[in-house]
Amino acid sequence: GAVVSQHPSWVICKSGTSVKIECRSLDFQATTMFWYRQFPKQSLMLMATSNEGSKATYEQGVEKDKFLINHASLTLSTLTVTSAHPEDSSFYICSAISGSRQETQYFGPGTRLLVL
Amino acid sequence: KQEVTQIPAALSVPEGENLVLNCSFTDSAIYNLQWFRQDPGKGLTSLLLIQSSQREQTSGRLNASLDKSSGRSTLYIAASQPGDSATYLCAVSTGANSKLTFGKGITLSVRP
Fold it and tell me: Does the distance separating the beta carbons of B104 and A42 come in below 8 Å?
């Protein structure tokens, strides 16, 4: 089956620093990748949709200048949390859609971010 | 705006019991519905995907049904095992490449 990886799996950083999270599709080309955020005991909330080679589409209420998304290739998308604050602490999960199987989203294992 | 509800938030059952997890959604104009499993601190594992034109899907001990007109889906787990303990998430989409709208999930605990 299709595999999506995320790196790092967890990160602790100081308030004010920037953190980059990578999402990779390992054995397929991902035409579309999604970034979700999950707070404790809450559902996954979509942050943005990224298509390879174009600008990401952000959901209402998500600051595009704070959460920078780059989808430079068909196998890699990155999410950079700029000037992180404690309220950005969350579980960030990416998913990817294969160009050949557009109905199924394959999810990464998630990245837990803790901002001190 | 699509909203997905899963009630109850948590469920505890003895091993061997058959159980049903419920999911409801407000907008019946969906493309498909998926059930996922999430273990603590982990990502999501897709369990079953039901297209809007389908009524049910089966995989092993799992059976998911969809009643699009009433905005409901159920996940049936037969002969539950302790290894089934996890959070089960329901999600709907409105198109082939579109985002998923998730419920908050049901945390299942199967007691040995």
Answer: yes
Between CA B35 and CA A21, with CA A87 as vertex, the angle to 5 degrees is 60
- Transcribe B35-65 into DSSP letters: EEEE-TT--EEEEEEEETT-SEEEETTEEEE
Q: How far apart are the C-alpha atoms of A48 and A37, rounded to whole Å?
A: 10
Tokens of A101: 């199987």
Q: Residue B49: which of A6, A32, A103 has the nearest Cβ?
A: A103
CA-to-CA separations, B63 to A30, A55, B69, B96, in angstroms, rounded:
29, 39, 19, 22
For residue A8, whether the previous peptide bond is cis, meaning omega lies within 30 degrees of 0, is: yes
Per-residue pLDDT of chain B (112 residues), as tens digits, is 899 999 999 999 999 999 999 999 999 999 999 999 999 888 899 899 999 999 999 999 999 999 999 999 999 999 999 999 999 999 999 887 678 999 999 999 999 9
Task: Enumerate the residues of chain A whose CB falls inside 8 A of the CB of residue B31.
Answer: 103
Q: What is the pLDDT of residues A38-82, one digit of tens each?
A: 998 888 999 999 988 888 999 999 999 999 999 888 899 999 999
Residues 6+ positions from B98 with CB-CB distance below 8 Å: B31
